[in-house]
Amino acid sequence: MPARSHHIPQLDVEELFSSPARIGASISPDGTRIAYLAPWRDRLNVWVQSLDSDAQARCVTADGNRSVLTYHWTANPRWLLYEQDGDGNEQWHIYRVDLDDPDADAVDLTPFPGATAVGFETMVTRPGKAFLHLNHRNPVEFDLYELDVGTGELTMLAQNPGHVAGWLYTPDGTLYALTTTEDDDIELAQWDPEAGKLRTVTTFDGADYPLFVHPFVLTPDGTGVWLGSNRNSDRTRLVRLDLATGEETGVDSHPVFDLDTRCAVFPTLPSPLIRNEHTGALLGARYLGERQVIHPLDPHFAAVLKNLEKLSDGDLAAVSCDARGQHWVAAFNHDRDPHATYHYDHTTGQSRLLHRPYPHLAPDVLAPMSPVTIPARDGLRLPAYLTLPVGVEPSGLPTVLLVHGGPWMRDSWGFHPAVQLLANRGYAVLQVNFRGSMGYGKAFLKAGIGELAGKMHDDLIDAVDWAVGEGYADRDRVAVFGASYGGYAALVGVTFTPDVFAAAIDVCGPSNLVTYLGSLPDFVKPQLANNWTLYAGDPGDPEQAADLLARSPISRVDQISTPLMVAQGANDIRVVKAESDRIVDALRARGVDVEYMVKDDEGHGFLNPDNNIDLFRAADRFLARHLA
Question: In a 3-state reduction of DSSP, which class is residue 415?
Fold first, then answer.
């Protein structure tokens, strides 16, 4: 690896991939307490602390097996809820914690083996209640339930007739269903449970919404929905849909950027809608270009935002307030000062730092992440990010092409532990939003249709050529590294373009698109029409199945001579372990050496810190060996 400046210390893998000291803070409805995630037995758990007193924080969950990432305050200050699955199997359950009884065990409110609870939300007009979708009656059908948080009683509000993808329940008890039509469009319809009939409210062109319509949030009065619409537009903007007429009325838009809908892929990321969760009021909208832009949609929040943005030069990430909108807890996304979290009192105008999740990481040791634009061979302009090592001459560097997943996701500015580890080791890191990535308009997204292992991959190769041409990268020392679709891209890299990369790391990437699509969980298959089926092909059609196989790395496994490392979670329900086994077994049968890491307590990607530490230690050694 390149010579390092003497004053930049080498970071240990543990420093970047151990659990943060504190993260994910939010304030209680009454503004008296803060909850946050912090380690307990080396797993993130929920802790609660008084906002003003010096009383010691208390760990209120006790999961020593798997980190907790999502929790919810309730209107009753006694109850706190959290979500957890089992070893990455994505069978999410809702658990209740009694904050008044520290010795009481958490209660599973959805105690159905093999079932999954999704779409959890509270409604301000029904305190003490929550809504969720459950598939315990039929694994492929999600029914709508109302949960009484205090008693744990579940009441079915709507039984899925077999084609409903999601439900809305208004304060007056009216039901609405989101369905996919025979033409693969998305229909919103009022549901009459007695007659079993639907009254169409509106229809969306399904091809314009590969990840369904998002956001899709009921207004507090129940007469409309706030949603992200690209109807008659290339950009996704915020509109209000009238549930009676189906009319869309513009609420807000940005002239260049889309609403930031990344949480459709990763629900732990902030929603594009900033709301007071306790009143339902819409406060602001998030847009994302090279950096984030927030439009305040409420005068009070506009004044708050002005003061919050003085606290950091990062992008406002998670933000919460009490019911009165006076006490705020805000975290900031930043490439070198990640998730610094503050309390701000709008009554006094005073603020204080609550915590930094990684207090041991000095900003001057971390590498800045710079937006760049790369021209593709057909003229399409590709938004990308380049991170260069600190204290190293940025010329002829070993380089890692880090490919995002989805493919309907996007790379964005901020703190990424993998990027910082690689930059700290002296590598240039290039992240490319290839065609088919979200957030750059409908035309850019749909330019990926039919282009897996085609123009989507050409974009990655063009980015490598750009980095070499600009002098940043050494052509003979470029690696490709990715997870999920990024893992597939890494495998495509070493099979379709075997001379480009000196090393490749695939984390839970599909090796055979036909078997991958066939092994997806049954409950997601009805939603494939406008994403995988449209963009890649239908494995049920013989001609399309042949094309899918031709675009699969397994069909060109004899081309692989590049050193390869593969990592996989044994409980992955999206890209099952057989996908990684196939490529590894085929290579070993040819006598090709391949490193293979399997974690029995992980699913789609690694969550637990000890597993991530193992993964990135191995990746660190692997890249040093093959790019040095």
Answer: coil
Are 179 and 189 contacting, i.e. CB atoms less than 8 angstroms apart? yes
Catalytic residue among 19, 484, 552, 580: 484
pLDDT top residue among 388 and 53: 388
Q: Using an 8 Å Cβ cutoff, are 57 and 49 in contact?
A: yes
**Does 484 qualify as catalytic in the annotation?**
yes
Query: Coil, helix or strand for 422?
Result: helix
pLDDT digits (tens, 9 = 90+) for 186-225: 999 998 888 778 899 999 999 999 999 999 999 999 999 9
252, 572, 580, 626: which is the annotated catalytic residue? 572
What mean pLDDT comes out for the span 367-372?
98
Instruction: Please pick, among 254, 346, 416, 604, the residue that the annotation labels catalytic.
Output: 604
Clarify whether 300 is annotated catalytic: no
Q: Which residues pair with 402 in a beta bridge?
A: 481
DSSP 3-state of 224: strand
Helices (H), 500-608: 513-518, 532-535, 542-550, 577-589
φ and ψ of 43, to 5 deg: -130, 140
Which pLDDT score is estimated for 197?
81
Give catalytic status of residue 163 as yes or no: no
Express as a percent the part of the chain with pLDDT over 70: 99
